Amino acid sequence: MGCFECCIKCLGGVPYASLVATILCFSGVALFCGCGHVALTGTLTMLENHFSRVPSDHATLTNVVQILQYIIYGIAPFFFVYGIILLAEGFYTTSAVKDLQNEFKTSVCGRCITGMFVFLTYILGLAWLGIFGFSAVPVFLFYNMWTTCNAMKSEVVNITSPENICVDVRQYGVIPWSATPGKACGSTLNDICNTSDFYLSYHLYIVACAGAGATVIALIHYLMILAANWAYLKDACQTHAYQDIKTKDDQELTDVQSRSKEAINSYS
Hints:
mainly alpha; 79% helix; 2% strand
C-alpha cells in the first residue's frame, strides 16, 4: 500500500497539460526542421537542373536557402531547451499548488519567471504563426505545378496543345527574369513533375507546414498553461499571506486570553 500511495502521489505531481504541450512542440519542431531542411535542398537542386542552369542567376537564392538552413539549425536546439524549461516550470507550479498547505511557499521571483515565460511564449507564438504562413507559400507553388501537370495528363480537360502550357517560376520572384530557361513547358514540365526531387520536396513542404501548425498549437497550449499557472501562483501567495495573518491573529488572541485569565486569577 505504501508503494501504491507513493506512485499515486508521483503521478499526481506530473503536469500532464505541460507534458502534452511539450510532446506536441517537439514533434512539430522536429517535423518542420527536418522536412524543411531536406525540402529546401531538393528545391534548390530542382531549380539548378531545370529552371536556372547558370549559377550566377540563382546565387541569391542559394544564399537565402543556406541562411534558412542555418536558422533551422538554431531553431531545433533552442526549442528543445525551451520545451524542457517549460516542462520543468510546469512541475514547479504543480508542486507549488499541491503543497499549498505545507511549508512550501511561492516566491515573488517564481511568479516573475512565470510571467516572463508568458510574455516570451506569446512572442514566440506570433513568430511561429508567421513561420506557418511562410511555410505555406512553397506548398502553394508546388501545388500549382502539380495541378498543371495533372491537367496535362487528364483526359477530361482535353488539352489540344500541351506544349503551350508552361510554369514560369520567375513570376514568383524565386529567380530573376534573366535566368534561363526560367520556365518549363509541355513534356519538360511533365518530366519535372515525375522527378523524385519534385515529389519529395512537395510532400516534405506539406509535412513541414503541418509541423509549423502543430508548433503554433503547442505554443498556444503553453500560453494557456502558463497563464493558469501564474494565476495559481498568485492565488497561492495570497492564500499563504492570509493564513499567516490568521495564524498571527489567533496567536495574539490566545495570548490575550491567557493574560486575562492570569490577571483574574491574581485578583481572586
